[in-house]
Design brief:
This protein has 267 residues and is α+β, with helices and mostly antiparallel strands. The protein has 6 helices and 14 strands. The strands form 3 sheets. It has a 7-stranded mixed beta sheet with strand order 1-2-5-9-8-7-6, with helices on both faces. The chain is globular and about 55 Å long. The chain binds biotinyl-5-AMP. Biotinyl-5-AMP is lined by residues 21-23, 46, 49-53, 55, 57-59, 64, 66-68, 111, 123, 126-128, 141-143, 145, 154-155, 158.
């Protein structure tokens, strides 16, 4: 498989025909020896994809891009929560470019959603960031549903570029190459800007960009917090650490650093 566009933007790129999980493999290699910043592993056949919190990321062979990027930049620990957000922003741009007629947005922290003609938001991409304690690098994994057909969608809440375009003639490798190149370029560009700003998300422009691209801001949300706690309120912003600010009905504002957000439609 040829990925000329992705090869041109990744400092080091390996394309693999099939693998359990690109993140697990890049993390395994990183624990053996530190890899250069921008090392990329990608496949169109990931057989044991991982989501957050031990959930699964599922895609039939050849229908989705799985890409993992080694982030070994000098950002400082406080900036690390921004990496999954960077992954989401890069994936959002890549999908928006492939779907110019669609509304594509980020759901905090890092899901990419497409609004269908029926007004329902469906997930087209997800991000998993894994911190490797031995080297301090982060493996940033991004999955994008490219040529999945409607019958292939793993969950009813999913969609793909092909489903949204309404055509089934797309060349899978060409499309995946274009998406991969956009994702890798978008990740490395934002990480470089964050590093240049000394890890300051506001100074690097990242905070402002995330506020603009994140459909969660301004929405009424339900947040499942670790420990089965639920928070309901309006997402009012992001703080400098990348946490989402949720204003609850009692007037309090809580900064949520980790949780699963549901956009509420009718409350
Ligand atoms: C994610 O987790 O969204 C992170 C997905 C990261 C995948 C990439 S691919 C490259 C790298 N290598 C890996 O092994 N992983 C990364 P989370 O927010 O926990 O969402 C998982 C949930 O999304 C599942 O429980 C399903 O409900 C749903 N889901 C599973 N597969 C999906 C798909 N292909 N498209 C949309 N939704 C999916």
């Amino acid at each position: 498989m040829d990925f000329p566009l992705a090869s041109a933007v990744a400092p080091l790129l390996q394309v693999i025909d099939s693998i359990g999980s690109t993140n697990a493999e890049v993390a395994r290699r990183e624990r053996l020896a530190a890899q250069p910043h921008g090392t990329v592993l990608l496949t169109l056949d990931q057989t044991a994809g991982r989501g957050r919190l031990d959930r699964q990321w599922v895609a039939p062979p050849g229908t989705a891009l799985a890409v993992s990027v080694v982030i070994a930049a000098d950002l400082g620990t406080a900036a690390l929560p921004w990496l999954p957000i960077i992954g989401g922003l890069a994936a959002r741009d890549a999908v928006a470019d492939a779907l110019p007629a669609s509304v594509v947005a980020v759901k905090w922290p890092n899901d990419v959603l497409v609004s269908g003609a029926d007004g329902v938001e469906r997930k087209i991409a997800g991000v998993l960031a894994e911190f490797i304690t031995t080297t301090g690098a982060v493996v940033l994994g991004i999955g994008v549903n490219t040529t999945m057909r409607r019958a292939d969608l793993p969950v009813p809440t999913a969609t793909s570029i092909e489903v949204e375009l309404g055509v089934d003639t797309t060349d899978a490798v060409t499309l995946a190459d274009r998406i991969a190149a956009d994702v890798i370029r978008g990740v490395l560009r934002r990480v470089a800007a964050l590093a240049d700003a000394g890890g300051d998300a506001s100074g690097s422009g990242l905070l402002g960009e995330a506020l603009g691209a994140c459909a969660t801001i301004g929405r009424r949300v339900r947040v499942s917090l670790p420990g089965d706690r639920i928070l309901t309120g309006v997402a009012s912003g992001l703080d400098a650490s990348g946490a989402i600010l949720v204003s609850t009905d009692d007037g309090a504002t809580t900064a949520v650093h980790a949780g699963d957000v549901t956009h509420l439609r009718y409350e």
